[in-house]
Write a structure and sequence with these properties.
about 375 residues; alpha+beta; CV3147-like fold; CV3147-like; 2 domains; seven-stranded antiparallel sheet; five-stranded mixed sheet; about 30% helix; about 25% strand
């Protein structure tokens, strides 16, 4: 177990912003909210999966909606707490521990806020090892975890319980329009799981990994060491491209930020072009019209000079970026999982997933 500090939050926010592949909500806004809670005297402890009792009641806490809207709305600040309390009221029992729905962006911070406000520990793991736009794209649901019941709240305090849905696809189908009615962003507490289920299906150690990635960026800034090499040494990834964003086509539709960006190469990549399609998160990267990376592996944009992660809502003409690809968790590389998180699931049936090579003991488990 370790207790989260003010500096930890900055590192986690940077690392989770990188692992979020463009989505998961603004890590910086999450950082500010959590650092405010720490300043006010709140605290939160992180526990390993092995410290979690098999019979513990757990749930994820995370945002649902369009990242582009999430940076514009004024929040109450108690939404993570409200979501957990709504689920507890419905089941008639306290929740023992919380965890991340995804390690990406602001959704890495939401359970920490909930833990601070409720006094509950947060498990060092998540259900994606990255961010994904739809709720069925979860290692828990792929592994058979139930999606009922679920709680959903907005910034006004409206709370909705989703009592019984036949599967996680139905959960996504019904929750997304509710999210739109909540102003395109809401807070969820789900699924209700035992500690044994969490241990079986979670991606392990991802809060620690996000912290390590962020610390690598901060250390590289201080020591002037090569920024991308520092990140790649922790994540087991590869550099795909470096250049300038020359076109961004983005729209908010059905509760998602959808679109495509184009990057013109600089330096050793001069004369080349890289194009990325996204749905909240980056999905497929084409270099000179050849696919070089795709989901479920991670496609991550970093500001070249600072290593700062660039999320979907920050995309704009002229940004100097370096694009990395990072191997995903093995839990997403099975035939069953690829039907849910592979390129065909996002409308790219002609794109073939070729897994990035992985080294044992480095990056996402």
């Amino acid at each position: 177990m370790w207790s989260v500090t003010h500096n930890d939050i900055e590192a986690i926010a940077i690392g989770a912003g990188i692992l979020g592949t463009g989505g998961g909500g603004s890590p910086y806004l999450g950082q500010l909210r959590m650092q405010y809670l720490l300043k006010k005297g709140y605290s939160v402890n992180i526990i390993s999966l092995d410290e979690l009792a098999d019979d513990a009641r757990t749930c994820e806490v995370g945002w649902i909606g369009a990242p582009t809207v999430g940076i514009e709305k004024i929040w109450d600040g108690r939404e993570p707490k409200w979501a957990v309390e709504a689920l507890e009221r419905y089941i008639g029992h306290p929740i023992d521990a919380l965890l991340c729905s995804e390690i990406g962006g602001g959704n890495s911070i939401a359970p920490l806020e909930a833990g601070a406000l409720t006094g509950k520990p947060v498990v060092d793991g998540d259900a994606m090892g990255r961010a994904f736009p739809e709720m069925q794209m979860s290692t828990h649901f792929i592994d058979g975890a139930p999606c009922n019941p679920s709680a959903m709240v907005d910034e006004k305090g409206n709370a909705i319980i989703l009592d019984h849905l036949v599967d996680s696809f139905a959960l996504e189908h019904f929750a997304r329009p509710l999210c739109v009615q909540m102003g395109c962003v809401g807070m969820l507490a789900l699924p209700l799981m035992s500690g044994a289920q969490v241990k079986k299906s979670s991606v392990r150690g991802t809060l620690t990994l996000a912290k390590q990635v962020g610390e690598a960026v901060l250390r590289a800034r201080r020591t002037k060491e090569p920024m991308m090499e520092a990140v790649l040494s922790v994540t087991d990834g590869v550099e795909l491209f470096a250049g300038k964003l020359t076109d961004v086509q983005r729209r908010t539709a059905d509760g998602f930020a959808r679109g495509e960006m184009t990057c013109e190469g600089l330096g050793t990549y001069r004369g080349e072009t890289l194009r990325i399609a996204f749905q909240n998160e980056n999905l497929v990267a084409w270099k000179n019209d050849t696919v070089v990376a795709c989901v479920p592996d991670l496609i991550c944009l970093l500001e070249t000079e600072t290593g700062e992660p660039i999320t979907t809502e920050q995309l704009r003409y002229g940004l100097r970026v370096t694009i990395l690809a990072i191997p995903c968790t093995d839990k997403f590389r099975t035939e069953a999982a690829l039907k849910i998180v592979g390129p065909a699931a996002f409308g790219y049936p002609d794109v073939t997933y070729n897994p990035l090579p992985k080294q044992a003991g480095i990056g996402i488990e």
